[in-house]
Every structure is written in C-alpha cells, then in structure tokens.
Amino acid sequence: MNRKRLTLALSLLLLAAVPLAGSAYYTELVTKVMILAIFAMSLDLLVGYTGLVSLGHAASYGIGAYTLALAAPRYDPASLWVTLAEAVLAAGLASLAVGFFVVRVKGVYFLMVTLAFAQMFHFLFHDTDLGRGSDGISISFRPDASVRGFTPFDLGNSVHAYYFVLVVLLLTYAFLRLLLRSPLGHALRGIKSNEHRMQSLGFPVLRYKLASFTIAGALGGLAGYLSAAQFGFVNPELFGWHQSGNVLLMLILGGLGSLTGGVAGAFVFVAMQELFQALTIHWQLPFGLAIILLVVFLPGGLASLPARLRPPRPEGPFHV
Amino acid sequence: MSEPLLATRALTKRFGGLTANSAVSLDLRKGQVHALLGPNGAGKSTLINLLSGDLPVSSGRILYRDRDITRLGPHQRSRLGIGRSYQKTNIFGPFTAYENCRLAAQSRQPRPWRIFSDAQAVPAVRRAAEAALEAAGLAAVADQPAASLSHGAQRQLEIAMVLATAPEVLLLDEPLAGMGADEAHRMVELLQKLGPDHAMLLVEHDMDAVFAVADVITVMVNGQVLESGPPAQIRASPAVRQAYLGDDDGPPGAEGGAAARPAGSGGRSA
What's B252's DSSP letter? Predict the structure, then answer.
C-alpha cells in the first residue's frame, strides 16, 4: 500500500514538472494524454467496475466536444465554467437516454447496441446541419475562465491549459474514488461480480447500471469538452468507433478496474503511437503487434505489474 | 392459525410441453417450517424460483400478505421480505465473506444514492452483516475471500447472505447439500433457531434434517402436490410411501431416520 502511494506521488510530481522542461510540444502532447486518461477512467467505471463493456463510449466524448462548439458564440470566447457544465450535463443526459435502452441487454448485445447508438450520433452530426457536416466546426476562441472580471488562468497559454487539465484529471480521479467507496460503488462491483445474486438480494440492478452508464457518460463528455477546448476544433470522427475502440484499448493495456490503470494505459498508448510514428510510416503494424504482445504477456494490464514484480508472500490472505 | 405470509394459488409453470409445476397451492405461515419433499424432477426448485421471481409463472397467483405479487421482479420481492438461498452456491467469489454479507445488508439501506458516503461506515449495515456471519458460524473466516472458503463454508455463506437482508420469508433450496456432518448439524440448529420468527420453505433431501425441523411437510411428485400435512401424517401416509419411496418398507425416518437417503434414489428396500 505504501509503495503504491509512493508511486502515485512520484508520478504526480513528474506530471506536475512536465511544463518546466519548456517544450511546448511535449506540454501539449501530455495535455492530450491527460484528457484521454480522463476519458479512459470514465470508461473504467463502466467496464472495470460495473462489468458493462461498451463500444460506444465515444458518443459521450463527441457530445461533450460538440457542446462547446455549438454553445460558443462566433465572435466571442465562451465562458469556460458555463460551457463545461453544459457539456457534462448534455453528455450525462444523452447517456441517461441511451442507457435507458442499452442497460437492458447483456454481454455481446450490450457491445453491439452501444456501438449502434454511437454510430447513430456519428451520422447525426455527420449528415445533418446540426453538426455542420463532415468538416466539423472550428472554435475560434478558447473558453474564457473569467469569473466576474477576474481571470484565474488563460487556456490560450499551453502551460495554463496543462495545469488546468491536470487539476481536472485529479478531481475526476478523486470523484471516482469517492464514488467507488460509497454504497453505490460497492453495489456496482457486486453487479460486475454476480448480477443475478445482486438482484435476488433486492438491488434494482437496472437502475444501478443506468446510474453507472450516466456518470461514465457525463465524465466522458468532460473529456470530450477538454479536447475541443484544447484543439479548437470538432468533427464527427470524435463519435467514431475508432475512438471508442482506442479508449477501450487504453483501458485494457493499463488494466481494468483500477482507475490508475486507465491513466497509465493512456500514456503507454500515446507513447507507442508517437514512437512508432517516428520510426515508420507503416506505424500501425508495429503498434498493433506491440498491443497484442502486451495483452498476451501482461493480461492484467500495467496495473498488475507491481504485484507481478513483487516476490510472492509466504502467507497470503488465502491461507488460514 | 395465523394468516399465511406467502401463499400460492393454483401455481403452474410450463417449460414448453413439460409441466414443472401444476396447480400448486400452499401456505407459508410465520413460525412454521414448511418442508418440501419429492424425488428429483418433482418441481421443488422450480417452485422456489417461481416464489422468488427468478422464473415467471405460466398461470396461477402468488400472494404476499394477501397482496398479489405474481408479476413482481426478484429484487422487488426481496425488498418485501422474501429471501432465498440457492441450491448451487451463488456468492460473490472475489469479495470477502464479510463483504458478501455487508452487500446483502446494504440492500436494505434507505439512501443508497449518497455517493459521498463511505459504504463501510454504516453501523446498522455492519451490525447486520456481522450478526449474519455469526449466526451462520462464519465469524472466524469473515475476512477471507468467499471463493477460497471450503464448500461447506460457502453453503453457510449462502444462508448468511439471505439472513443479512433480514427477510420474513425464507426460501431455502437444499441448504445442507454437500455439507459435512458437523456443518450440517450446526445448520439444522440454525434452521431450528430461525423457525419461530420466520415463514420458511425448506427444500432438503436430508430426511433427518427435515423431520427434525419441519412443522408441515408437502410432498410433490411430477410437479403436483401429492400430500401435505404434519410430519406424523406424512410419515404414515401410504400414498407418500407408495409414490415417493417406491416401497412399503416403512415410513421415512421411522428407523431413527439414519437409513433415509436422498430422494429419487428409488427407495431403500433391500
């Protein structure tokens, strides 16, 4: 436990120090990774803790991103706090509506209907005037963080943006930790372990699953919002199944059901992408191979690494 | 006699062409242990699944305190106070025995949506979980993962989880199955202790246990009720002997019960 805390503290220090290196490229790259980490953690609540494997989580990401694009005035910066709240709310409400239908099915069917709903959103924004087509929308001004004339930071400054995203990442982590500690969190784990028994013990399982789906969606919307704020641009690909597949891969690489695993997975995923892109234009080949090898030889993900490296204790909790 | 807590009226369950339960009517009363006997395939487990809501009924009605609950889902029936255990152990393997019971007790917590409270810090839930473990004789292994417990202890946990939800009606599907002699003895004592405060439906093949705890026995054959009555009546019934035991070599449990074997073995004549 202590070693775990130490690792966490060191990683946090390291993260906090990134902008000090002075490379705008890496500052922005790690900002992007942290946004993906928030996205991966939001999916972990669904997949790692509730046992619902979604292939449509990008829908919430896209809705969060498009909320900023559509809510922002054309010739003025939007208010960060107002549009952020709107994005989280919009993604949460959309997830509530979609969840109402999808939590009724299980396993591979859940996978398929979540994928189908995400594709519907993709086409909604791709083929109607709502999302202004496949070209997407440019956001001319970054959201303004001012509150009554006071401006605590400027998202146009990449270092400011970096620390803002870092704080949101930490808040998301803390929120999910609290949630998992609560009766709701324990019930979700119970549903993942044995849904049938949860039902027979008196838990309204569908309602709990819907709560998980909605919260995961709201946080996915948060990540999508941050991405739109960082890149100043949205397009329908944000809803694409690639996006859903990638975040699921990050989670699997990092380890399901540990929150920090999702964060580690996001880093490894982007790091490998960068590495192989620098080496070859056919980067997807070694990238795919590396993912296969990681999954085969480290099935529990990066989060299981510390337990594997530690020598087995002579007296585990399994012995009397 | 007290009003029945849980009652069935002409309850019928068909699986395609097979009628697993045919017009079953019985009453479960508080303070009464109602044992269900019958050979394998008689429809005992099906009846429990119908009562708990795990299976939808084909026709007939289920009444709880005179309220029709035939269409209610399993979690709604559980919340009314109908608790069931499973013949095939159905627990949360990765969680500790304590967490299995704590989760069961949590289902009775009034405000489950307060997401910033600590699930482990609710005194009433903790007490209910500890009491259930204690009653089932599992206090010593409370912190072990359920999957690592012995088969007998997992069977005890199965019951402890039901008790942690503080039900009025207990539907127990072969609670003694696979238990060693000591564990079985303790379980029979527990069932005797639970009898006065609960309405209990007990499906069990262990004749000693059944005759030790039952106040009423219903014998089922081919999905139908053959006979229902106090143990002495069932013991003396020629129809039961004929249909269920397949011989007339004496009533079940008559020779101290030791010779009685699991039902469905086609009798015990030499």
Answer: T
**Hey, is the C-beta of A316 within 8 angstroms of any chain B C-beta?**
no
d(Cα A22, Cα A216) in Å, to the nearest integer?
34
Cβ of B119 within 8 Å of Cβ of A185? The answer is: yes
The whole-angstrom separation of Cα A194 and Cα B91 is 7
ipTM value for the complex: 0.85
Chain-centre distance for alpha carbon B139: 22
Q: What is the pLDDT of residues A167-201, one digit of tens each?
A: 999 999 999 999 999 999 999 999 999 999 999 99
**A51 vs B: CB within 8 A:** no
**Contact across the interface for A202 and B78, Cβ inside 8 Å:** yes
Pair A261, A301: CB distance under 8 Å: yes
> CA B173 to CA B177: how far, in whole Å?
9
Residues sharing a CB contact under 8 Å with residue A167, sequence separation 6 or more, in sequence order: none
Can you give chain A as a three-state secondary structure string? CHHHHHHHHHHHHHHHHHHHHCCHHHHHHHHHHHHHHHHHHHHHHHHHHCCCCCCCCHHHHHHHHHHHHHHCCCCCCCEHHHHHHHHHHHHHHHHHHHHHHHCCCCHHHHHHHHHHHHHHHHHHHHHCHHHCCCCCEECCCCCECCECCECCCCCCCHHHHHHHHHHHHHHHHHHHHHHHHCHHHHHHHHHHHHHHHHHHCCCCHHHHHHHHHHHHHHHHHHHHHHHHHHHCEECHHHHCHHHHHHHHHHHHHHCCCCCHHHHHHHHHHHHHHHHHHHHCCCCHHHHHHHHHHHHHHCCCCHHHHHHHHCCCCCCCCCCC
pLDDT at A252 over 50: yes
In terms of pLDDT, which residue wins out, A183 or B250?
A183
Q: DSSP assignment, residue B79?
A: H
Q: What's B199's DSSP letter?
A: E
Q: How far apart are the CA of A201 and the nearest CA of chain B, in angstroms?
A: 6
Beta-strand relationship, B59-64 and B32-37: unpaired
Per-residue tokens: B150: 């012995």
Which one-letter amino acid corresponds to residue A89? L
Give the Cα separation of B77 and B74 in Å (integer): 5
Domain with CATH 3.40.50.300 in chain B: 1-81+167-270
Residues 152-181 of A with CB under 8 A from B: 178-179, 181
Residue closest to B198 by CA, chosen among B165, B161, B170, B232: B170
Beta bridge partners of B59: B12
Give the C-alpha separation, A174 to A181, whole Å: 11
Q: What is the dotted CATH code of the domain comprising B1-81+167-270? A: 3.40.50.300
Residue identified by tokens 């704020």 is: A229
Read off the tokens for A146: 């001012």
Q: Any idea where the domains of chain A sit in the sequence?
A: 20-239
Helix, strand, or coil here: B254?
coil
